[in-house]
Design brief:
Number of strands of chain B: 11
Strand content of chain B: over 45%
Helix content of chain A: under 10%
Structural class of chain B: mainly beta
Shape of chain B: globular
Largest sheet of chain A: 6 strands, mixed
Distance between the termini of chain A: 38 Å
Shape of chain A: globular
Number of strands of chain A: 12
Helix content of chain B: under 10%
Oligomer: heterodimer
Radius of gyration of chain B: 13 Å
Number of helices of chain A: 0
Order of helices and strands of chain B: EEEEEEEEEEE
Order of helices and strands of chain A: EEEEEEEEEEEE
Chain lengths: 118, 116
């Protein structure tokens, strides 16, 4: 079973509108972290936002917010006031609490390609 | 402060050739790792290291070797390249090996490898 599921291969949004990118995850570990990364056409991976499983409030970073619904195991990324520069691939990722020596390993979803239109 | 530096950015190999993808970080990060990115599959972990002299396998380690002789460097070796190893490779590092807080992975710019 996939640990991270992104069901939207592609999304379109008009400039200045808000958009929600879906992410669901699967883990039996009570302690985990959820991440969103942006990959523009230039190819680099850019960290956007982090949510810990014990965090009481939804994470926010500027125009990015993470809609964390723990019971539903979802961690949707909300981008407010979309800009042309937001056009990119977006990846959701999870880090489960590592066993001894397990390291900082992320499991990634397959990504959502976002296109912002005028 | 260069961050995570990967070389080369592009490489074409013939089946059976060997090569090394270089990764260096100047942030004194304890943890380093290699991912490959294939269309429709996201990023998958190849190998990782929690410190100098310590390495371990990730999800897709076959056909790759790594070593970590220094904190700064984490090269990825392809022993005998196969067309299935055509991919974009990312090196990533973080300050800590552990779980506390975000401990964000910083990625290199990627290396695009084509195996003919």
């Amino acid at each position: 079973a996939q640990k991270i599921t992104q069901t939207q291969p592609g999304m379109f949004v008009q400039e200045k509108e808000a958009v929600t990118l879906d992410c669901t995850y699967d883990t039996s570990d009570p302690s985990y972290g959820l991440f969103w990364y942006k990959q523009p056409s230039s190819g680099e991976m850019i960290f956007l936002i982090y949510q810990g499983s014990y965090d009481q409030q939804n994470a926010t970073e500027g125009r990015y917010s993470l809609n964390f619904q723990k019971a539903r195991k979802s961690a949707n990324l909300v981008i407010s006031a979309s800009q042309l520069g937001d056009s990119a691939m977006y990846f959701c990722a999870m880090r489960e609490n590592p066993h001894a020596g397990g390291g900082n390993k992320l499991t990634f979803g397959t990504g959502t390609q976002l296109k912002v239109e005028l | 402060n260069a961050g995570v530096t990967q070389t080369p950015k592009f490489q074409v190999l013939k089946t059976g050739q060997s090569m090394t993808l270089q990764c260096a970080q100047d942030m004194n990060h304890e943890y380093m790792s290699w991912y490959r990115q294939d269309p429709g599959m996201g990023l998958r972990l190849i190998h990782y290291s929690v410190g100098a002299g310590i390495t371990d396998q990730g999800e897709v380690p076959n056909g790759y070797n790594v070593s970590r002789s220094t904190t700064e460097d984490f090269p990825l070796r392809l022993l005998s390249a196969a067309p299935s190893q055509t991919s974009v490779y990312f090196c990533a590092s973080s300050y800590s090996r552990g779980f506390g807080g975000a401990n964000v992975l910083t990625f290199g710019a990627g290396s695009r490898l084509t195996v003919l």
